[in-house]
Amino acid sequence: MRQSQLFTKTKREAPKDEESINAQLLIRAGYVDKLMAGVYTFLPLGFRVLKKIEKIIREEMENLGGQEILMPALQSKSNWETTGRWDALDSLIKFTTFYTKNEYALGPTHEEIVSPLMKKFILSYKDLPTAVFQIQDKFRDEKRAKSGLLRGREFIMKDLYSFHKNSEDLDRYYEKSKKVYANIFKKVGLGKITFLTFASGGTFSKYSHEFQTLTLAGEDIIYICEKCNVAINKEIINEQNSCPQCGAKDLKEEKAVEVGNIFKLNTKYSKPFNLVYKDEKGTEQDVIMGCYGIGLSRLMGAIVEALHDERGIIWPGSVAPFKVHLLSLKSQNSKVKVFAEKIYKDLQKEGIEVLFDDRDEVTIGEKFADSDLIGIPYRAVISDKTGTKIELKKRSESKTKLITGKDLIKFLK
Ligand code: ATP
Ligand code: MG
Question: Could you give the CA distance from residue 219 to residue 258 in angstroms, rounded to a whole number?
Fold first, then answer.
């Protein structure tokens, strides 16, 4: 893509009302735009990052046997009354329309929709186990929305729901989901700082599990057991004061953000919706459920919080909007421009994702500053000084090297 065609512009200053690093950098670099507190537009660069994260998550959900669907965000009051959450859930956004006077909720999560949905299809033990997932906008009336993408009032979540004959089958699936989740966080570059944590389990099980990424921007406190490489949430520490896995008491306190959550629902939602199946003997049994969430937009914010320096974002290759940022620097020598154009076309031909800073009116200093701010993993510079070669630098390092166009392609492929 040509930067001269990109309608977004970088900004030197972040908006005054944005306190969080992720929102400041993402807005300045032109990844997102803020509509109001907790509500953002994803601009072309941001949309590309989101799609990369989505692809990684989708592949892993398919590994878990999930079938992708898309449920409505606009939801009827009666579904929420069935579980008692129309009145009980503080963050539920609900309203009455002017014309039809219908009462609706905007979905903050989808147990109230997926349970009656699957009731139409799960009839006997032969239909189990099964799992569905979606990647969709969620709405929550969050009290504070000052953490940029970490806490949206509209945000993007992947939610998977699994359905089982019995709790042993759910347990098996749940353990597999832990591995799949760990894979996702590794793939998006947060593997080393994302911990499986023990959280409270609600009425049906002792623990649920969260995936918490270390960051000072996080609103949660976790306690890491360095022996087990797992962590414990505050509410659990208050109860038992030790690692649930090994009993160790010397735990390290850290700030973190919850990027994922897996939960054994058991019959919490199947009971109110009468989601049952006929077992081998023809007897009706409750379907056992699990739910598994990841916030995609929060994950994008968490990556920026974890991977940046004073000059801008440092995207991991797996989610970067482009693989290489090609800069053609201002020159009196027309050969520079011709050479840069040729390299741009060659990279495209090879299928290497490239953002080409072909802007004429922009100074060299501004091009370098923009490149650091945008944070594409590799920067390739063509200027008067590079001659017939290209100066290649990794965003995360300071050393540069001169290579030929051929070697550049070989290296990036
Ligand atoms: P938190 O405790 O941070 O408010 P939660 O426990 O309410 O989160 P869940 O209901 O477990 O969140 O939602 C599943 C996932 O969706 C979370 O693990 C998180 O990644 C994401 N998520 C939840 N709330 C938000 C939000 N307001 N903005 C962005 N992502 C969110
Ligand atoms: Mg949670």
Answer: 9
Smallest CA separation from ligand 1 atom 13, residue: 293
**Centre of ligand 2 from the C-alpha of residue 176, in Å:** 19
Q: What is 3-309's CATH number?
A: 3.30.930.10
Question: What letter represents residue 229's amino acid?
Answer: N
Domain locations along the chain: 3-309, 324-412
State both tokens at 170: 């759910």
Give residues with Cβ within 8 angstroms of 112, minimum separation 6.
75, 79, 80, 82, 83, 85, 269
Closest ligand 1 atom to residue 301 Cα is: 29
Spatial distance between the Cα atoms of 26 and 374, rounded to a whole number of angstroms: 8
Tell me if 3 CB under 6 Å of ligand 1: no
Residue 332: per-residue pLDDT: 84
**Residue 206 pLDDT:** 87
Give residue 319 CA to ligand 2 midpoint distance, Å. 24
Ligand that lies nearest to the alpha carbon of residue 143, given by its number in the listed order: 1
pLDDT at 38: 97
Q: Is 314 in the pocket of ligand 1 (CB under 6 A)?
A: no
The Å distance, Cα 187 to ligand 1 centre, comes to: 20
Ligand 1 centroid to Cα of residue 258, in Å, is 7
State which H helix or E strand residue 402 sits in.
Answer: strand 400-403
- Picking from 139, 151, 118, the residue whose alpha carbon sits closest to that of residue 74 is 139
Rounded to the nearest angstrom, the gap between the alpha carbon of residue 18 and the centroid of all alpha carbons in its chain is: 20
Which regions of the chain are under pLDDT 50? none
pLDDT at res. 204: 72
Residue whose CA is at the smallest distance from ligand 1 atom 25:
151
Which single residue is written with the structure tokens 């894979």?
183
Answer whether 233's CB lies under 8 Å from 218's CB. no
pLDDT value of position 205? 81
**What contacts 24+ positions apart, CB below 8 Å, involve 396-402?**
396/314
Give the position, in ligand 1's atom list, of the atom nearest the Cα of 157: 16
Distance CA 94, CA 18 (A): 27
Architecture of domain 324-412: 3-Layer(aba) Sandwich (3.40)
